[in-house]
Amino acid sequence: MTTSDYIYKLVRVGEILGLKFVLHDQSLPKNVAGRICYRKKTVRINEPCAEDALMIVAHELGHFFHHLRNKDRKIGRDKREISAYLYGWGLLKRIKAPISKEQWIGIHS
Ligand SMILES: [Zn+2]
Known about the structure:
Layout: H1 3-16, E1 20-22, E2 34-37, E3 42-45, H2 50-69, H3 77-94, H4 101-107
The chain binds zinc ion.
């Protein structure tokens, strides 16, 4: 399995939930590696390193899982980021992605 295979595993999870993915979106600002739009149900990624892209996809999907469970609640940004961190890590573990906890923590610090 290559890193791209793991990315596509997560993309398929998102697609089943109705999300669309743009994996090389250079219209994102340079300092933004990924973004999710709930209204358009779109995840856009702009991260050239495959391992980092895998983690960004997991993070954005983490946001979506959190969103699905908290649609009608107003939740602060810090709590949303913590949820994306936790859900995203759970997704990576579920697909047995070769990402270490140190890498996951690293991309979030
Ligand atoms: Zn986030």
